[in-house]
Amino acid sequence: MNKALVAVIILSFTLSSCNMLRKGRNGGKDDGQIVGEKSSTWTPQRPKGMVPIPSGSFVLGQTDYDFTFDNYAPVRTVSVSGFYMDDTETTNSEYRVFVNYVKDSIARTMLAEKAAELGFDPTNPGSGEQTGIAAFRYISGSEDGEKTAWDEYVEQNSTGRDGDLPIDQRKLNWDQELFWDKYEYPDVDYAATIDQLYYAPEERFNNERLIDVRKLKFKYVWVDQEGAARQSGNSDTFRIDFRHEEEVSVYPDTTVWVRDFNYSHNDPMHENYFWHQAYSDYPVVGVTWHQAMAYCAYKTKKHNDYLSGRKKRSGVSNKVIDYRLPTEIEWEYAARGGLQDAPYPWGGPYLTDDRGCYLANFKPKRGDYIEDQGKGYMYTGPVKTFHANGYGLYDMAGNVAEWTSSSYDKAFYQMTSTLNPTMARDRSDKKAVRGGSWKDIGYLLMVSARDWEVQDSARSYIGFRTVQSFPEGSKIKFKTRR
Question: Where is this region: Disordered (predicted)?
Answer without folding.
Answer: 24-47
